[in-house]
Amino acid sequence: MYYCTYQSPLGEIALTANDNGLSALAFQTGKSPITLAGLTEDKSKFKQVIQQLTEYFDGDRKHFDLPLAPSGTNFQQQVWQALIQIPCGETKSYGWIAKRINNEKAVRAVGSANGANPIALIVPCHRVIGSNGKLTGYAGGLALKAKLLMHEGAQFKV
Asked: Is residue 134 a part of any domain in this protein?
């Protein structure tokens, strides 16, 4: 496993990858920073990721096109694939995700899978809000979630 860090306008981001692709992205100031001990630092493995993150924060990128290798259950993988389908500048509810994966009764499980997303920002779990339009939990904290959504021009209630 490899890692590098990236200094974004919203704080330090840690990235990890294996030979198949990006396996984790976390804001290191959030509730769930990535533990980097035991990993090999190799910024050269992350050139494409860093370029796309820079374009995103500069306002020039709305969608990421990267090889991803998140570790999770089949259900979590389904939820994460649905998250990738939420366009930049839009938000969706947990219920929308449940319908999208053809499991309408799994709203709470969708919430858990959303919270377990290891590749924040690129798999845009921050675009999921409550059915009432209000912000709900985010590993990086609600203030960071609000900043990301404002950066993308999304509508939400506080």
From this structure: yes
Shared domain for 29 and 83, answered yes or no, is: no
Domain span at 127: 74-152
69-97 tens-digit pLDDT: 999 999 999 999 999 999 999 999 999 99
User: What pairing do the DSSP bridges indicate for beta strands 11-18 and 21-27?
Assistant: antiparallel
Which CATH number covers residue 39? 3.30.160.70
Overall average pLDDT of the 7-23 stretch = 97
pTM of whole model > 0.70? Answer: yes
**Biggest alpha carbon–alpha carbon distance for the chain:** 43
Dihedral-angle region of residue 130 (phi above 0 means left; psi in -120 to 50 means alpha; beta otherwise): beta
Residue 110: what pLDDT? 97
If asked whether residues 43 and 78 sit together in one domain, one would say no
Catalogue the active-site residues.
Answer: 125
Q: Map residue 71 onto helix, strand or coil.
A: coil
Could you tell me whether strands 11-18 and 2-8 are parallel, antiparallel, or unpaired per DSSP bridges? antiparallel
Rounded to an integer, what distance in angstroms lies between the CA atom of residue 106 and that of residue 99? 9
Per-position DSSP letters for 111-156, written without gaps between them: HHHHHT-SBTTTS-GGGEE-TTSB----TT-HHHHHHHHHHHT---
